[in-house]
Fold these 2 entries.
Entry 1:
Amino acid sequence: MAQSAIATSNVHPFPAVRPGFKLAPAAIGSPADGLQIVYIECPNWCTEDHVNEWQHSVDDVSHWGDSFGAGIPSFVNGDDVYELAARVYSDPSSQDPQMRLAHVMVENPAGMDGHLTPDMADETADDLIKLAAKLRTAARTARLANGGDSDPDMDEALRRVREGQSA
Ligand SMILES: [Zn+2]
């Protein structure tokens, strides 16, 4: 299996890599049948350790950027009830040309991951910025409803009434 994998276009016998890529060692095979180190073309944004994360075939190698994300906590149980994680990703052996290109993957532990072109990721980022603004508005509404007085935008007259002074 490893010998035939050498013939694929992902492996170069000498350092001739395209701009934006580096030669990286990758472990191909399996611990049971033996792992062979081959050099693959790996995009500069990829932070995967392709030796540690061995694959059966060079065609199984995909590229992963650093994961980043945000969790949604709950004061009911103390754990995150929802977690959003994303990273740059590409699968150079995919049948889908868009999967072969660098794109943004949003991980979905419950089902299919989201795959976004850079334009789609920009649009989604705009939506999430709007969501974040609404989250702040909701927080302010809840804080005011509970009699909180830490909001800097609170009407000064209301603040004086709360403090027992004449408005
Ligand atoms: Zn890589």
Entry 2:
Amino acid sequence: MSLRWNRGRAALRLQTLGWFPLLVTVGPIGKATAVHRDAAARLTAAVLAGRGMNFTEQQMVEYLPQAQARWQRALMERRRLSTAERLLQARRCSYCASWSDPSATHCAGCRRRFTVADDTEWDTTVSRATATVAEAEAILADLARGVVLERLNGASHG
Ligand SMILES: [Zn+2]
């Protein structure tokens, strides 16, 4: 993603380099002037006030190769999250495979009453899916905060 700001004849370009955490470069378009320096200083102050960080060139060089891996990990965690959330939205009948409301006592497809075994299986599904949701959300938050990949809790659990 790329954005451009103009003020009079001065223009700044903001370029996104990574998303977890958000990593951008900002630079003047054309020759840098006092207007550019003032804008860059105010932008930096705003980022730092929002608990952001200012990277040196050297830190950028070290960080950039991780950006792709972090993005892929975030996509994987988002998929785990949405799959788990879908599991929590409906219970499946072991007899006819229809989906019913989580609070239903009878199957929406075959009208059969859910058995104790069905309820036990549903409870297991709910607790597993709830744990997956919590874990995926925690990893996404860690990625966004900039926690290094190797230090994320719970490697991938499929
Ligand atoms: Zn059924």
